[in-house]
């Protein structure tokens, strides 16, 4: 029997063989009592995907036996080989999640060494990831969708992510899906009576999350705990800033028409008037928004997207990517029934009001905005800011055995305002807070 050994000489991963329709699937996995993901997890994911397989033995592998040596040298539970009957091989770099129905030791999870552009999510709750490329004068803009079945609600969930790079947009979509699923899981775990620990961001003191509904301001996701925390703090700043603008208008970034034309697909310019908005704030991050007003249908409501990042250019790019989710071509289906004359007149007046509102906002030039200094990606910078008279912020690590931190770290941020369940007033020029909270996924 072949075994891969750790430096201490203990057996860690064992090879397994599955017979598939065109040959064999060979990989490495720990014993179920030792850790995850085990060979049973792989079999359950194949069964979910309706892929025929049959457990096999190493002796059944009569071609390309040298593949086992390569697998043992890598000692990875996320690298597989498809071995066809004609001797051809296909290497699969995967991200294998523990299966909810498997009884393996999920607490001892063997994470992948890295997630690259070649990594696929066939052995995970995500069963479809699609990427679309949109050309712009300044380069490509990628929009990715991730669809998967939540192990909490057992319903399919589709989310989107956009970026200038294909792999970045793909990972953004996966991270957004994890945020959606993890918050549902956190609320169910709390309602089931599980003791969930939280700690203060300012003082690092620990406590237990109170029973009842959990109000969360932001969810951070990243490759490490610090990266997830910085992402969550940036999202928290976005929520706090928009709440504070409930009684005043943001700043309109002027002189940006030519700049926008080079960074968005042409169909967006045909369909919408795009306006960049700037939200000055005291946090160590820049908050921007983008407003899209339809040029063809006055009855269509305005579309908003917001972003927050330490670099102004990146924040604007993120806002453009988020507005693309709402303005993508699949959303061009017009209503089959024409609105009534009275409704059309009211919609036309509302559309005119929005146009007047955006041009009445205070002005700032694009040149000045792009010359704003970048904020450093430093947790201590944020900690010092919140220690300086800001409301308490609690951190909740929301990874679970089914969503291991070895793949992506997740953290929920809860401010004192969220704990008190206070709702801000209607935001001037945006609408009611419930609509904005849906855009922010909180």
Characterization of the model:
The protein is an alpha+beta fold and 442 residues long. Helices cover 31% and strands 27% of the residues. The chain is built from 12 helices and 19 strands. A hairpin with a 5-residue loop joins β10 (197-200) and β11 (206-208). The longest helix has 26 residues, at 166-191. The radius of gyration is 25 Å and the shape is globular. Mean pLDDT is 86; it is low at 1-11.
Keywords:
single chain, 442 residues, alpha+beta, six-stranded antiparallel β-sheet, five-stranded antiparallel β-sheet, 12 helices, globular, disordered N terminus
CA gyration radius, whole angstroms = 25 Å
Report, as a whole number of angstroms, the end-to-end distance: 51 Å
Q: Which spans of ≥5 residues are poorly predicted at pLDDT below 50?
A: 1-11
Report the strand count: 19
Major sheet characteristics: 6 strands, antiparallel
Portion of residues within helices:
25-40%
**DSSP helix count?**
12
Name the average pLDDT: 86
Give the percentage of residues in beta strands. Answer: 25-35%
Backbone structural class: alpha+beta
- Overall shape: it is globular
Summarize this structure briefly:
The protein is of the alpha+beta class. The protein contains 12 helices and 19 strands.
Task: Provide the fold topology.
Blueprint (H helix, E strand, L loop, with lengths): L3 E2 L5 E10 L2 E7 L9 H10 L4 E4 L9 H9 L4 E6 L4 E5 L32 E11 L2 E11 L6 E8 L2 H26 L5 E4 L5 E3 L9 E5 L2 H20 L6 E4 L2 H5 L4 H6 E8 L6 E9 L8 E7 L2 H16 L13 H20 L2 E3 H5 L8 H9 L5 E5 L11 E7 H4 L13 H8 L2
Parallel strand pairs: 13-17
Antiparallel strand pairs: 1-2, 2-3, 2-4, 3-5, 5-6, 7-8, 8-9, 10-11, 10-18, 12-19, 13-14, 14-15, 15-16, 18-19
């Amino acid at each position: 029997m072949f075994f891969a050994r750790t430096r201490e000489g203990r057996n860690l991963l064992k090879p397994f063989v599955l017979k598939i329709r065109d040959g064999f699937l060979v990989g490495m996995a720990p014993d179920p009592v030792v850790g995850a993901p085990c060979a049973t997890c792989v079999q359950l994911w194949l069964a979910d995907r309706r892929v025929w397989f049959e457990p096999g033995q190493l002796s059944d592998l009569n071609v390309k036996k040298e593949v086992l040596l390569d697998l043992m040298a890598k000692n990875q539970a996320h690298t597989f080989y498809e071995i066809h009957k004609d001797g051809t091989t296909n290497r699969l770099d995967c991200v294998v999640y523990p299966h909810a129905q498997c009884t393996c030791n999920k607490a001892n999870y063997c994470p992948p060494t890295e997630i690259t552009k070649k990594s696929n999510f066939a052995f995970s709750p995500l069963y479809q990831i699609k990427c679309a490329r949109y050309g712009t004068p300044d380069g490509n803009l990628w929009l990715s969708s991730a669809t998967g079945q939540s192990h909490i609600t057992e319903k399919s969930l589709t989310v989107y992510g956009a970026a200038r790079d294909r792999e970045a947009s793909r990972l953004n979509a996966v991270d957004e899906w994890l945020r959606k699923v993890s918050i549902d899981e956190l609320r169910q775990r709390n309602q089931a009576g599980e003791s969930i620990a939280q700690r203060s961001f300012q003082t690092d003191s620990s406590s237990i999350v109170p029973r009842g509904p959990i109000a969360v301001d932001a969810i951070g996701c990243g490759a490490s705990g610090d990266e997830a925390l910085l992402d969550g703090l940036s999202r928290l700043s976005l929520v706090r800033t928009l709440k504070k603008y409930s009684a005043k208008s943001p700043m309109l970034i002027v002189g940006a028409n030519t700049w926008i034309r080079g960074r968005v697909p042409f169909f967006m310019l045909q369909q919408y008037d795009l306006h960049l908005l700037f939200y000055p704030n005291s946090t160590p991050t820049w908050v921007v928004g983008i407003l899209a007003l339809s040029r063809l249908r006055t009855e269509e409501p305005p579309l908003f997207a917001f972003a927050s990042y330490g670099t102004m250019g990146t924040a604007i790019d993120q806002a453009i990517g988020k507005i693309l989710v709402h303005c993508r071509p699949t959303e061009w289906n017009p209503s089959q029934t024409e609105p009534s004359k009275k409704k059309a007149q009211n919609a036309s007046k509302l559309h005119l009001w929005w146009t007047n509102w955006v041009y009445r906002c205070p002005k700032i030039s694009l040149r000045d905005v792009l010359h704003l200094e970048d904020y450093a990606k430093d947790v201590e910078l944020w900690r010092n800011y919140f220690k300086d008279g800001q409301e308490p912020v609690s951190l909740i690590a929301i990874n679970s055995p089914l969503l291991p931190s070895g793949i992506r770290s997740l953290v929920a941020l809860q401010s004192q305002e969220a704990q008190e369940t206070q709702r801000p007033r209607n935001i001037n020029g945006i609408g009611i807070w419930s609509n904005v909270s849906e855009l922010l996924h909180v």
